[in-house]
Amino acid sequence: MHFHHIPAMPTETVEYLNCRPGKTYVDCTLGESGHALRIFEKIQPNGVLIGIDQDLDAINHAHRIFGTRPATVHIVHANFVQLPDILSQLEIAAVDGILVDLGLSLHQIEASGRGFSFRNDETLDMRMNSSSKLTASDIVNHESETSLTKIFKDYGEERWSRRIARKIIVERGKNRIRTSGRLAAIVISAVPQDARRRQKIHPATRVFMALRIAVNRELEHLETFLGFVADYLNPGGRLCVLAFHSLEDRIVKRRFQTLAKGCTCPPNFPRCVCRTKPLARVLTRKVVRPMSKEIENNPMARSTRLRALEKI
User: Fold this and answer.
1) How far apart are CA 124 and CA 102, in angstroms?
2) What is the mean pLDDT of residues 1-27?
3) Could you tell me the CA-to-CA distances from 239 to 19, 132, 163, 291, 293 in Å, in that order?
4) Does the domain spanning 113-216 belong to CATH 3.50.30.30?
5) Statement: the pTM of the whole predicted model exceeds 0.90
6) Which DSSP helix (H) or strand (E) runs through 53?
7) Fold identical between 10-107+219-311 and 113-216?
8) pLDDT at residue 127 tops 90
9) Rounded distance between C-alpha atoms, residue 103 and residue 122, angstroms
10) Rounded Cα gap, residues 244 and 212, in angstroms
């Protein structure tokens, strides 16, 4: 299986992770191993790399990439919310850096055959972990109009969510919606023509993103992960998150602020009584975006948002 993917913001990511020889780092979303390879090179000699991904294609690719590497590389097929169990099994209490790249890989979009993209007419699947039960087809063909509207609105911030949901209900009553191509055509037909002309993106972009998020429970897993991840960083250890849309980035930003603030007392309290101390300091005062040259060479990186923090 051929993989060709350029990782987003690789130089900035490695710098913010502060990769050092002999230390232990986790790439929680291996993808096509672009970031993982750069981290591995920076932490030699004797550095430990733990690579995690829920997509078995990514795991198999990583085994090929790191097949001749030393035993200090651990490749694990799992979701990053399972990080505590993974570290426990490896008898590692905490690590020096953790990376989470929340984007889709080029392989998933162009060659996985799972219907992530509206550009290809593929089975409407969208599971990152193919052993999971729920598919995009299940959602589209069985959820109510109200539920579909909420998914498209909450996860895709889709203006025409109700119209699209209503159209899906009508069309699935004729024949089950089985492919990404048919779903894209239904979405296009539901969006008013004037609105389609004004849009800079394909009319189905937000619906496909919303379905992918729902199928893989992406925001739920991100919230869970951010709730415990600081406990698994050594003092001075760093967390770097690459987000690709506002919903993800908002969750990351707020959690980083909470970890850096510490105190949970109401704003009107004259002094702190909770005695909660800050756990980390935010390294990215403002979100870091890719340089124009990178976007020119790698258009997929244009929506990347990088945030990083360091545990105190």
Assistant:
1) 21
2) 89
3) 11, 28, 40, 21, 25
4) no
5) yes
6) strand 48-53
7) no
8) yes
9) 20
10) 13
